[in-house]
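Ticket reopened. Same input as before:
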Amino acid sequence: MDIMWYIFDMLGTVAFAISGALVGVAKKMDIFGIIVLALATAIGGGVIRDCLVGHFPPNSLQGMAYVLVVCGVSFIVFFIYRTRYYKQVMGLWSRRSYMMADALGLASFTVTGASVGYAAYPELPVFIVLLGTITAVGGGILRDMLAQQIPSVLKEDVYALPSIIGGVAYYLMRHGNWTFEPAYGAFMVVLVIRLLALYFHWSLPKVR
Amino acid sequence: MDIMWYIFDMLGTVAFAISGALVGVAKKMDIFGIIVLALATAIGGGVIRDCLVGHFPPNSLQGMAYVLVVCGVSFIVFFIYRTRYYKQVMGLWSRRSYMMADALGLASFTVTGASVGYAAYPELPVFIVLLGTITAVGGGILRDMLAQQIPSVLKEDVYALPSIIGGVAYYLMRHGNWTFEPAYGAFMVVLVIRLLALYFHWSLPKVR
Amino acid sequence: MDIMWYIFDMLGTVAFAISGALVGVAKKMDIFGIIVLALATAIGGGVIRDCLVGHFPPNSLQGMAYVLVVCGVSFIVFFIYRTRYYKQVMGLWSRRSYMMADALGLASFTVTGASVGYAAYPELPVFIVLLGTITAVGGGILRDMLAQQIPSVLKEDVYALPSIIGGVAYYLMRHGNWTFEPAYGAFMVVLVIRLLALYFHWSLPKVR
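Engineering reply: fixed in the latest deploy. New output:
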């Protein structure tokens, strides 16, 4: 199952990088700006998490894989848009498959974050849940702050809530010594809730 | 006097959380966004401080108290606005008492920050003063960055200056081995200057 | 040559502080806001770098020199604008010499960042290059985020690219055990590319 896990993590990284690169394109940034936004979205959450637990250098910067994948994705997005074939490509890489990859990323990043928290501070449930959520949504918040727009996760959609619930599920399953592997359980919790939220167009309550 | 200290710290946390939640409401965020802004405002400054001195996990995340209080405050603000009784409630919790709680928070956060700095690096006065100020105003800056508005502390009011002066006072009193407890002295310095600034509507000079 | 190095570093700090203070003036901030933007621009990149490698407290906060120089620069900019003699002063301190000082800062900050990375993790080339670039451009990004504008380095000009190339050059020269001092080599690489970019008005490609 470990190879499966790695695939989910990479799919999430790619989906997050695409989301960052697309915001960069929309804001008329140059190729450096597009790469920075893709990096911020894909590895920003994990970097903030590692800073909060005091792991240096951050996990995603200990090798080249993540940074190079994100740079590669950025260049691909850039050239697709540049050649103006993006409508055709967007047809292939439909919104639905993008949303699926993004949901896989949300789920795997949540579990990674919560497990880093549990490994370091098993006695701090609130911190563990927070780390899962920050890993999953922190990058998107950073992307929107760099692009000068109010972070979408704070206004729209049910995006952070599945991550919070997944973090709680992870903690409870680890804490309760379930024989079932907590990582897979929590992963499924996030994924299912997120897909339900997408399917039924859920949104969180606002004041008005 | 320790219980007094804890009360001031909690009053400040509540006041800062309210200020964050209100900005979230004003920016039409959902309940998750409101909680994030309240958390950023109430514990963001302390988290940045702990990152700068290398204390992990940050103090406010080592237990559940701060996070749960801030979440509770966010839900209360949310439901008050939702039920549209907020005008009546705002009458009870008048602007004056809010400003008093906020000033208590500014003072207690400044002292906490400066004392963390002094404990770790007593030979670095500039760093100590900076930590006091970051603890006190960093959360509000983070709140405004998340809400896409220029941080109010950079443009209006005399808000950071009392904190800077209080940090200097704290350092001088610790360094000079005053018999009077430096924490209370510095706390009063911040509080008095802040309340004077509010009463006389002081503001810092601008270019024009 | 060490005194030379210190001069370049200070020239860069002064140039970056000026750039931050000018944005603060343009956004009608008060003197505290102007100082915060100058500090963010001049030492923000280095602070982020030190957080990523786990050096606490950050290098620029271990003494008073940087903070006091930046505060001094902020006050000078403030009073020049306040007295409305700034057109005459701007004539003296022409755009050309400002750009030269800024380019020296870009070069020296890149080398400092890359050398911090190499000292800590010589086996991580991507991280080393990233640290050089973050040290050089991170402060400007922070400045623009505080001032609510899209970071200029993400949209305009060839500013980060010289730093990236310089970081790569630094790593290759260190890794290859060149007898020539890598710091000076990389410094010249950044400086020459940046000055060429300014002279020929280069810019990075955009989608449209």
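Chain B touches chain C at residues 51-54, 120-121, 124-127, 130, 141, 145, 148-151, 153-156, 160-161, 203-208 (CB under 8 Å). Residues 174 and 182 of chain B are 6 Å apart (CA to CA). Please confirm and we'll close it.
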